[in-house]
Structures
1.
Amino acid sequence: MPLVVQKYGGSSLADADRIRHVARRVAAERDAGSSLVVVVSAMGDTTDHLIELARQITRDPDPREMDRLLVTGEYQSSALVAMALHTLGVPAVSLTGAQAGIRTDGSHGRARIANVDPARIVREIGAGNVVIVAGFQGSTADTYAAGEVTTLGRGGSDTTAVALAARLRADRCEIFTDVEGIFTADPRVVPEARLLPVIGYEEMLELAHQGAQVMQVRAVELGWVNDVEIAVRSTFSDHPGTRIKEDPDVEQRNKVRGLATDRNVAKVTVVAVPDRPGIARTLFVPLADAGINVDVIVQNVSHDGTTDVSFTVPRSELARARRLLEPVVGEMGARELTADESVAKVSIVGAGIQNAPGYAARMFGTLADEGINIEMISTSEVRITCMINEADLQRAARALHRAFQLERPEPEVAAAR
């Protein structure tokens, strides 16, 4: 029997009717002859509600207790999906992340998977059960009773599913959500966005990292490293969706595949920093130690022994970043630290665009024609990112989508495939 790992997100499990719909979908897959491991997220906005409840109690919740609170959302949905399958006559058992063998490091709120011991899952499949695994979580020890509960961060259920698919050598790994797959842009921002039937791991990784929220970055990384083909599909249709896989046509294509937008960004500038060795380390080590991701970094040309350093952090982390850096800025003798929350990122992504002429010029020219000022620029082998005013983001995304003709299908690539 083929082994299939499926993951269902919170929007797919938002209420009892949707849980029953998911159960019917799982039952149909089992009737078709598959063994199933189903990873579930918390229902709807449950995680957000739990976070808000914690904030009503304290502004600075203990990370360990926060993890113990947040995992209860996935406990609920896993048990309810198992119950829904029972009503259809399908044998099923729900497991916590720890019971499913997800072992992590001890970083509460952002734990990384260290190992997967699938022994319990294998036994349950052998007994004829559909295994429902609570996503987004794991344990630091060999047994749940002795270990510390940890969570994997936002989108962690994707990571759970891909890690299990890799360890179990599943025949398929399917990520079910409320959209039909990966689009050339966010359809809420660019109505003309087109569904991509296939996208390479590297391109998907950049899109996810730059703000596309359909897939979690670490899940794509795991898929790439372990050669797990991932299908992103809609819970509410039979459309085949998008396959994330090693793409043999990537060199032939050599063009922009999609664009990503991100509003969860803030620009931090340290003004008049003494220009001497070690200053960058002094600035960025405290952020790294606190787990705050720094993205775009720009250092101006030195004048009179000082320079300005600007960089971006997630807007949700800005307050914490300021608390960490303000004493450091004073100690190093810089003039001041400023922050701007009115910015956003827009990125074009495509394998090989850095090695082909014209893409940067077309991107910058398109934004200039729209009267949109570029504040910062960052590039990689497959991406060009511009920092702009947040008020201009939708206009910029639509203009770039038109400029790179992303609404057009790729008939030559489809034919080759």
2.
Amino acid sequence: MVKSFYQERDRGLPPEPSRPISTPPSAPYRPQPALIAVYDALTAPPRVEQVRGDSPRDLIETLASRTYQLSHEAGGQMPYAVIREVVENFIHAGFDEVVVSILDNGSTIRFADQGPGIRDKERVFLPGFSTATDQMKLVIKGVGSGLPVARECLTFSGGTIRIEDNLESGTVITLQMAPPPPSAPEQPEPTTESFEMPPLTLRQKQVLSLAMEFGTVGPTVVSRELGVGLSTAYRDLESLTGHGLITTDDTGKRALTDLGVRCLDALFGR
């Protein structure tokens, strides 16, 4: 007893193996394996991985997921939805000699097959144009939305999609994303230890603190606040001036220099 096509569909089962799943008459029910080639550098052979599927749906899901994973591991940012839409297009080629190439650190993905090819490479980007058969629609949507959606998504993300004929037969679809901008080099954090700390006595450090607190200081202020003689206060101020930590203006007022501020920051760990 032969089961009808609709009985198989209603039960969620694939059609009989004798009924082809794609356009080419020779397309087998169990699709042949696909290859993914990852080019770490064009000067070296690619890393090649074989992807299998027990059914067209299984191969589509596995190939799309693995392509997304490998391209992102290489540094790419290709959206999964775009990859999935293009991989589904292999059903029109009967999954004949499918090769997915990942280049440019994952920014470029090339999908190639040896199927019947795409004659009108402009209309395939118009919604509604499709060659999907009823049996193909058991696996894919088949309403002519795949490549239009892929191009719209890529255009929004600053990418491109290109369709070309393969060398003898079949199709090559190339997806390309603009590489991410190079990250800015990290700037070294400013440090207060980029100058040599001059030898200072405890009292001279206190004089610097007074200059920070009062804004300007003189021997009288230093003498009063630290309880030392005027001559001692004067010598400390002159010593700090010699180290470039304090400057004297035309009125005789003494204030911290930038170096003096840095010296205080270093002393107090600021």
3.
Amino acid sequence: MTEIYMDHAATTPVRPEVLEAMMPYFSVEFGNASSIYSWGRRAHHGLDQARDTIAGLIGARPEEIVFTASGSEAANMALKGAAWGLRSKGNHIITTAVEHHAVLDSALWLEKNGFEVTFLPVDSEGRVSPEQVRDAIRPDTILVSVMHANNEVGTIQPIAEIGSVVKESGALFHTDAVQTMGVLDIDLSRLDIDLLSFSAHKFYGPKGVGALFVRKGVRLDPLVHGGAQERRRRAGTENVAGIVGMAKALELAVAEREVEVPRITKLRDQLIRGLREIPHTRVNGSLSERLPNNVSVCFEFIEGESLLLNLDMRGIAASSGSACTSGSLEPSHVLLAMGLSHEIAHGSLRLTLGRENTENDIEYVLNELPDIVHRLREMSPLYDK
């Protein structure tokens, strides 16, 4: 049976080159990077090289990179660590209604623990404006968190402009770059970003490893205590193999971006054009300020879960939103925040493309999907036949 993977926003396969770079640190160079003998020193050398590589690729200093176990941990560390570190200066935090749950749930947790949080609304494309951020900032605002690009609908936020606004206020600015790292150009030497979180498995690296950029001078209370690793900012024996793999994956992604992004963008646009020919179909998110691999649509009169099951039976892997909420029957909080009704939001489909996808894949999906949508609508009592 044909098998087509179109859920790269959820995760990506580890590239062979990445696995090859990781392998020595599972066996020969297995030492604890905190140990002073030769095995430990060699592991620490691999850790230092990876840190140098990642920092150099994003315009940061090596000492500004803190390794974590995931993008979610990095986001938790950014919000909770910054909030507690700055609580003597204020207790107001600003974020948006369309953030990943790693940010939203951290903000809600902080709200339950004495902080005040403003959740900014977004427009119909899922964007928040720098003016909205400026209007929401108060004398007691200590942190603003706005994602670089949305994981569900692909809308890219104006983080450069928002960062400038936040810098003027003296607050810290965090951005969740999980979906953009290795895809969009990120140069932290030119951006007013204090904290930036990302995860290896979104750009063909291993699962279980992420990182947080912490600009020099930013005070951050640690989430994990019990060791001096990561300059006392994140205790625990480092996952050297995973960190080495993340560095290699990011190196490859940046090196190939100039060729790969236009190729993927062309496939994305071909897919969007074909899907818009299906009646009662809405494209979600911005058409101009959009991730190059993201296609998000809603089909009226059908349920997204049924759509996914039918696609799977025809060998197509997709999602109805973010992977972290795919097990829920609740409509996407992102789509609801963009003004969609519950009924329409329930019929959402996210197709996200990757290195392996070809024009033949696009043609296969566009051949199969209209029939699936038609059959599901025929079974819906809401559909006017």
